[in-house]
Amino acid sequence: MTVRNPDRRHLLRAGGALSLLGAAAPFALQLAAAGSAAGQSAPDYKALVCIFLFGGNDAHNMVLATDTDSWGRYFATRNTGVDPIALMPVGTARTAVGAVSPVTGRTASLGTPEAWGGVLPITPTAPNPVPAGTNATSRTFALHPFMAPTQTLFNSGRLAIVANVGTLVRPITKAQYLAKSVAYPANLFSHNDQQSTWQAGAAEGVRVGWGGQFGDMLSSMNGSNTLFTAISTAGNAVFLSGRNIIQYQMTTAAQPAVVVTGTTANSLFGSTVGPARLREIIQDTTSASLYAADYSTVVNRSMTAASTLNTAFTQTNVTAIPAPPAYTNAITGAVEANTLATQLQTVAKMIAANGTLGLKRQVFFVSLGGWDTHDKQNTTQPNLLAKVAQAMSYFDGVLGNIGGQDMRANVTTFTASDFSRTFTTNGDGTDHAWGGHHLVMGGAVKGKNIYGQYPTLGVDLGTFNNPDMARTALVPTTSVDQYGATMGKWMGVSDTDLDTIFPNLRYFTPRYLNFL
């Protein structure tokens, strides 16, 4: 993707993202967005929700192959170190804290896999092909033991898994990667660069993301409220930055862009006329300074948008959106916040308001951090996976009844992350790697299946030369371009526009995956 030199419009974009008038403000600027010819009318509503897992989720402990050969290699590799991270096999009962596990012979504690029970089996509708390199005649699969809500969604047919997805420039094999004979993304194992490459197709510094470009192409479906096309509840995200569309950043509760308080209701320092005068000053666009006038325009639009949004949030179908259930830490048993579920509650409110706001296409960005598990993985990742499972299950349930309508077929939710992590353990954690597995949820999703090629796992041990793994990192067999383009096509973005948004898409076969 092209990085353009900063110009006046880009400076204003940056200015529009500054919460100068209060961190609680949902704050953004909408510049003119023409949209594509295909986006002039929309008979339905569709939304895309990106759940970004910042830090690099260890997908090897989220979605697991459990056939005898695969499990043997998995368990032998991960059941090592001072704090082994290997999960227990399907059907294993929980070992009481302080008791000795019959599987490992170790004493179980709250933060060890022995105490969690076995992985949760899932049965894909269409068996995943057996790749060369494994001795299995068929593959079987499971999820992390703390992801029971995800298992339920998978079995219901509203959740699919896309295997071994990663940032790619061209299709590449292990041999080509080791020989450096085929181009691959810059700075592969860098958090910032791979977060940017996942969201925008290039290393840190790129300005335009594929979610924002979806908004560029489809915003004209949203009538006069194009400002609410791309919405983040997780701060500024390059994923939502378009060439014309500007992301609308908001907190988990809609608030006015300017809040004035005093000793009297609706007053400013005790003056009842103060609030109106302050707004006049802020909204003054007559300054001789072009920058000041343009900045006032930014603020004015932000204030108007906030007022529109707060009014929409008073509608009955919005206020009826239930709060997420209390979350209990999967390891400690302590009640704590699940910020991902709270963000998805706000997304659900925006979806509920789509009729009032006249919206037809929206792209959302939410996130959960803490996935950089170089150490203490056993006490960190399981709780994060449990939060993802609870949040996605909550969101699915809420979408099932918004104002009396089942909106699940209108909303597709997917996970993304910097990268996965090494198959080997460093003793009590894992390090940066490449390809990983991801979840896609929605009523339009062809669920209860695994898409893409689930890889052969295991380290090279003499006679076993893993075709899918280079230096314990999976070489991706599905590109982010294919993953994103599949969802863009579902949203209504044209093939031609998708070639522009994902310039490397033409090198990959199949062009679109079949999960939608």
Q: Can you tell me the residue ranges where pLDDT is under 50 for at least 5 consecutive residues?
A: 1-42, 255-264
Average pLDDT: 87
Note the total helix count: 14
Order of helices and strands: HEEHEEHEHHHEEHHHEEHHEHEEEEEEHH
Beta-strand share of residues:
5-15%
- The residue fraction in helices comes out at 25-40%
Supply Rg.
24 Å
Throw out a few tags for this protein.
disordered N terminus, 9-stranded mixed β-sheet, 3-stranded antiparallel β-sheet, 14 helices, alpha/beta
Report on this structure.
With 516 residues, the protein is an alpha/beta fold. It has 14 helices and 16 strands. Strands 1, 5, 6, 7, 10, 11, 12, 13 and 16 form a nine-stranded mixed β-sheet that branches. Strand 14 (469-470) and strand 15 (473-474) form a beta hairpin. Helix 3 crosses helix 12. The longest helix has 23 residues, at 290-312. The relative contact order is 0.21. The model is unreliable at 1-42 and 255-264 (pLDDT under 50).
Task: Summarize the entry for a quick read.
Helices cover 29% and strands 12% of the residues. By secondary structure, the protein is an alpha/beta fold.
Please give the structural blueprint:
Layout: H1 8-16, E1 46-53, E2 63-65, H2 68-78, E3 120-122, E4 141-143, H3 148-156, E5 159-166, H4 174-179, H5 191-200, H6 210-218, E6 230-232, E7 248-249, H7 274-282, H8 290-312, H9 316-319, E8 327-328, E9 335-336, H10 339-352, H11 354-357, E10 361-368, H12 377-399, E11 411-417, E12 436-441, E13 450-451, E14 469-470, E15 473-474, E16 478-479, H13 480-491, H14 495-501
Parallel strand pairs: 1-10, 1-11, 5-13, 5-16, 6-7, 6-10
Antiparallel strand pairs: 2-4, 3-4, 5-12, 8-9, 11-12, 14-15
